[in-house]
Design goal:
243 residues, mainly alpha, 12 helices, flat
Length: 243
């Protein structure tokens, strides 16, 4: 019981849930803070539904970022892909410097409004941290370890799966962590193209000069980022402990 009471991640999750449940009933607070507003609490969609849709959008896009970014990172660290490393680095870096709004604007004419252009933008935007972490983690494996694995008869595939990947896992995980946290914040912009996320109150609030809506959306996005970051921190400790 004492362990649970000292669990910071548990308290952060409970704080997020409490915030989601409390916000629909917070009219008196926000009416007092912003007396000039006729509607001080966002009611167009339930906050719990927006949280779920936000998490789903981030989860799916981050999965594709991690999958593609890891595959590309592994490929350009192998002899067959090393000549293409400068090109891959340039393309992925270019995608990161492109503003998410610009990616959304380019995707909407091709696939329409809704979640799909948001998924495309977020998946592309989350690639760079994963690719960089994958390359860095695999290159940090000592050459002596690789030679030892080859010396006992391991094939290139066995060396990758059984030796390099386990040693590279903590650094790779930090890249995925960065990618997911970036996507949590960036996903709020997806509401500009019709996706329902925690950014919906922010976008509506900015359009209607309703600071209360902006604050409510920002609180939830920030709290979700904190919970996710703490979750990755715990996962990283477990990975380090098992090495």
């Amino acid at each position: 019981m004492r362990t649970l009471l000292k669990d910071k991640l548990l308290w952060a999750v409970l704080a997020l849930v409490a915030l989601v449940l409390w916000l629909p009933h917070s009219k008196s607070l926000f009416a007092g803070l912003f007396p000039q507003l006729e509607r001080p609490v966002y009611t167009q969609e339930p906050f719990a539904q927006l949280l779920w849709q936000h998490c789903a959008l981030v989860g799916v896009s981050s999965f594709f970022s991690a999958l593609v970014g890891t595959a590309v990172g592994i490929w350009i660290t192998r002899p067959v892909g090393q000549p293409f490393k400068p090109v891959v680095d340039a393309v992925v870096s270019m995608g990161q410097t492109f503003p998410p709004v610009a990616v959304l604007a380019l995707a909407v004419p091709a696939v329409g409004f809704g979640e799909l252009p948001a998924l495309i933008a977020l998946a592309l935007y989350g690639l760079l941290p994963v690719v960089q972490a994958t390359v860095s983690s695999l290159q940090s494996v000592p050459e002596a370890v690789r030679q030892s694995a080859s010396g006992i008869g391991m094939s290139a595939w066995q060396r990758l799966v059984q030796v390099e990947v386990p040693l590279a896992l903590p650094v790779w995980l930090s890249g995925v962590r960065t990618s997911v946290i970036i996507n949590i914040g960036t996903a709020a912009i997806a509401s500009t193209v019709g996706a329902k996320t925690l950014g919906s109150p922010i976008i509506v609030g900015l359009g209607g000069f309703n600071t209360a809506y902006v604050l409510q959306g920002a609180l939830l996005v920030g709290m979700l980022a904190v919970v996710t970051d703490m979750g990755f921190e715990r996962l990283a400790r477990r990975v380090a402990w098992r090495r």
